[in-house]
Amino acid sequence: MVTGGQRSGKSVFAERLALSMSARPVYLATARVYDEEMLHRVEKHKQRRANQWRNIESPLNITENEFQDSDVVLLDCLTLWATNWFFELGEQVDDAFKEIKRQIEAAINTGATFIMVTNEVGLGGVSANAMQRRFVDLQGYINQFVADKAKDVYLIVSGIPVKIK
After folding, report:
1. Which among 82, 95, 142, 143 is least buried, having the fewest CB atoms inside 10 angstroms?
2. Coil, strand or helix: which one is 77?
3. How far is CA 154 from the centre of its chain?
4. Are 79 and 119 in contact, with CB atoms under 8 Å apart?
5. Catalytic residue flag (residue 45)
6. Handedness of CA 152, 157, 162, 164 (dihedral sign)
7. Is 53 left (phi over 0), alpha (psi -120 to 50) or beta?
8. Per-residue confidence (pLDDT) for residue 122, from 0 to 100
9. How confident is the model at residue 47 (pLDDT cuts 50, 70, 90)?
10. How far apart are CA 2 and CA 145, in angstroms?
């Protein structure tokens, strides 16, 4: 698991880690493109990865993809994926968490090596917005679940990886 704040360098670190483990890793993208800014971000990520990766886009159902036990899969990112499920299920935290846990467990059971990128959203203040507070709860539950399952956990601070597990 690779966690940290926005624009901390999580994806770049995770990409390097995946490439150190496989000559052709899988990039499992969870983003949905809603506007030009997001499109630009996605294109920038794709250009950085070039043709060395096998790219899969799965904004909701990551388990619809077949992974081999020899695959190294970079899931980028849990936060966007959680956002998709949060809104897909009517902002119901328990339902979204249950579905995400189910899919993470199924993915892990394929035998593939997963590197999961996520945002650490709990370091800021408490939002005045109830929906935002519910989403932070969901993201916190997911991060704790994945960190518990992960062999290694890295916190990225200003581009510097700090191994915390």
Report:
1. 95
2. coil
3. 13
4. yes
5. yes
6. negative
7. beta
8. 78
9. confident
10. 13
